[in-house]
């Protein structure tokens, strides 16, 4: 299933949110004077609660009546985020930096930011218009017309 630009933005935001969630559960700060990942994640949720709700609505519409498709997609997003914390040694630092960057954004800037992160990766393939190719019959007709 492909994603329109608006749906892709929603997918990237949901994937980024999931990465923040994984960071809040798995990453620790080394400076006791710094806020924790959980505090930063909770701030993100408070700051962008309306955008996150709108985002959920977009994803529900994208997946339509098949709630299981959305659940499967969300499970894949969560699994990838969970694997990233193990496989990517910079995961916590990247999440920390992104949480800081996001906290400085106005709500209207959030969607543009998430597209740049490409957080959903291959889980949000863009819809590409199909190229119209002539049918075999149309090709034969045009070739025979050219011979005359």
Characterize the structure shown.
There is one protein chain. The chain is mostly helical. The protein has one domain (5-147). Helix content is 69%, strand content 0%. It has seven helices and no strands. The protein has helices spanning 5-26, 37-47, 49-63, 67-87, 91-103, 110-117, 136-147.
Major sheet description:
none
User: Could you say which structural class the secondary elements and strand pairing correspond to?
Assistant: mainly alpha
Radius of gyration: 21 Å
Total individual domains: 1
User: In what range is the share of β-strand residues?
Assistant: under 5%
Chain-averaged pLDDT: 84
Helical content class: 55-70%
Count of beta strands: 0
Quaternary status:
single chain
Shape: globular
Unreliable spans: none
Q: Can you write the helix and strand succession as a string?
A: HHHHHHH
Number of helices: 7
End-to-end gap: 45 Å
Features:
about 150 residues; mainly alpha; about 0% strand
Summarize the structure.
The protein is mainly alpha-helical and 148 residues long.
Secondary structure layout:
Elements: H1 5-26, H2 37-47, H3 49-63, H4 67-87, H5 91-103, H6 110-117, H7 136-147
Helix pairs in contact: 1-2, 1-3, 1-4, 1-5, 1-6, 2-5
């Amino acid at each position: 299933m492909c994603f329109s630009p608006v749906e892709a933005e929603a997918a990237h935001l949901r994937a980024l949110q999931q990465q923040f969630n994984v960071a809040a559960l798995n990453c620790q700060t080394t400076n006791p004077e710094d806020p924790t990942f959980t505090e930063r994640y909770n701030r993100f949720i408070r700051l962008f609660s309306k955008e996150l709700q709108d985002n959920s609505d977009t994803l529900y519409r994208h997946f339509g009546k098949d709630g299981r498709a959305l659940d499967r997609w969300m499970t894949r997003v969560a699994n990838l985020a969970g694997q990233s914390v193990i496989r990517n040694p910079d995961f916590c630092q990247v999440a920390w930096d992104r949480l800081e960057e996001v906290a400085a954004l106005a709500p209207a800037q959030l969607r543009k930011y998430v597209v740049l992160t490409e957080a959903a990766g291959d889980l949000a393939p863009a819809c590409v218009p199909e190229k119209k190719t002539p049918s075999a019959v149309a090709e034969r007709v045009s070739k025979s017309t050219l011979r005359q």
